[in-house]
Amino acid sequence: MEQGMTRRKVIGTGALWAGCICGCRTGGEPVVPRSSCCYTPDIEPESVTYGRGGLTIDLRQAPSLWEVGNAAYVVNPARSLELIVIHAETHRYCALSRICTHGEQAVSYNRDRGLLQCNSFNHSLFTLDGRVWKGPATGPLKAYAVVFVEDALVISI
Amino acid sequence: MRRILIRPLVWAGWAALSLLPACAAHPGSPRAAWRNPKDGMLFVGVPAGSLTVQVCAEPTGVGDPERIVPQEVTFPRGFWLGRTEVTVGQFQRFVRETGYVTDAEKGNNRFTWQNPGFRQQPSHPVVYVSYNDARSYVRWAGVDVPTEAEWLYACRAGTTTRFYWGDRRDDRYAWHRGNTLGLGTRPVAGRRPNAWGLYDMVGNAWEYCRVGDSNDGFVLRGGSWTRCPEYRMRDGTLSGDLLAEAVEPRLQPHDLHPEYAAYPWDDDRGFRCILRMPKGPCVTTRAESGNTPGRCWKESGNLICADGRTVPRSS
């Protein structure tokens, strides 16, 4: 009985050490920002290249968009650019203005409903192509064309 | 044999006790409850007491800055407040009995209380009702919509912390956008109640409240399933705790809230009912009183009131 307890203790301690080693290994990897219907992270700035007709996002440098259901803001005040980019489905991305047409507050992506929701009190809802799903907003969100090319998103503005 | 004799007595006693009008208790007495026969809503007794609220002081001169001053609001008789928000099932009963058509339905709105844009069950709080719809309902049910002060007093249940459970957000007490995943309302009374047994005073559906004695003015309190506790604003900063804001003890003049007018109904707006105690004893018979709290009846020459008062015949 006493021996059994000791063995259990040894196994338990071993498991703790193993967990610690795993934790240490994963601790070195980058923390991937995850969006929620309440929180949208900014895109990794190093992943964005601005061109004449729009911008390109190098997805290898944009872990915030790796997971299906995630969204990220792309904001560039110098270019008056305020976008939300959404990884809607595998290989399907959407880019829209992130400013609600009613209260001019930012919108977030609700992955469980597949809708964009204004963060303001009146929380207008929009579909992924920008149409109003529920008011009080009456005007659509501007949607931009997105082309997925070899680990990159080309967004035409 | 002895057991056989005692059992009917116990059952008879229990039956007699259960037939006593629940309203015979004062709202402040422990476990006081009353069920409205009209819609089946269970009301909880809110004891007499007072609450200090912040109010906007009237300007004393031109250019006088806005001042927020504390003011004590007293509820000398207590009142009865719906244990939960009015549910879809209860609203259904109202519509069935009266043929009522809501404002959103009259306005041919895409979404209505029957189709709010997400799946609801009869136990969910009714939404897509306007303040006008809420007032029609309470008239039918023989009750009222609480004033903002009444609502705040009942919500805080004697606490002075940010929320009625403490100072920090606790998902065991409230449905909000974070823990509903923004998918819709949840059945009422699914989270923990406050100290007075009231459910969903924070979250699930916003609740219409009267502004003072006004008939048309209203505010919304309590937050809802569409409200994040906090979110990133357009400039990147985090907002304050929006749920705490929805229950802070401050009386708000409704004209400061143009956002309410922007949309007369929404997928997260509901209401709760109140039954106030009458100011003086009302003379009626017990039969007429039914089981309505606040009513009084003649008994043994005295006037017995459901709020616990006994008025001798001579007075």
Describe the 3D structure:
The complex is a heterodimer of chains A (157) and B (315). Chain A is of the alpha+beta class. In chain A, 17% of the residues lie in helices and 34% in strands. Chain A has a seven-stranded antiparallel β-sheet with strand order 1-2-11-10-5-4-3, with no helix packed on it. A four-stranded antiparallel β-sheet of chain A has the order 6-7-8-9, with no helix packed on it. Chain A starts with a helix and ends with a strand. With 315 residues, chain B is α+β, with helices and mostly antiparallel strands. In chain B, a hairpin with a 2-residue loop joins β10 (296-299) and β11. Residues 12-25 of chain B have low confidence and may be disordered. Classes of the chains: A alpha+beta (157), B alpha+beta (315). The A-B interface holds A 36-40, 42, 75, 82, 99, 102-106, 108, 110, 112-113, 117, 119-123, 125, 133-136 and B 110-111, 117-118, 177-178, 181-183, 226, 228-234, 236, 239, 259, 262-263, 266-268.
Name its key features.
heterodimer; A: about 160 residues; alpha+beta; seven-stranded antiparallel sheet; four-stranded antiparallel sheet; 1 helix; B: about 325 residues; three-stranded mixed sheet; 9 helices; 12 strands; globular
First and last CA, distance of chain A: 73 Å
**N- and C-termini, Cα separation of chain B:** 52 Å
Series of H and E elements of chain A? HEEEEEEEEEEE
* Protein structure class of chain A: alpha+beta
- Strand element count of chain A: 11
**What's the pLDDT, averaged over the residues of chain B?**
80
| Number of separate strands of chain B | 12
Report helical residue fraction of chain B: 10-25%
Oligomer status: heterodimer
Point out poorly predicted stretches of chain A. 1-27
Shape of chain A: globular
Number of helices of chain B: 9
Biggest beta sheet summary of chain A? 7 strands, antiparallel
Please give the largest β-sheet of chain B: 4 strands, antiparallel
Strand content of chain A: 25-35%
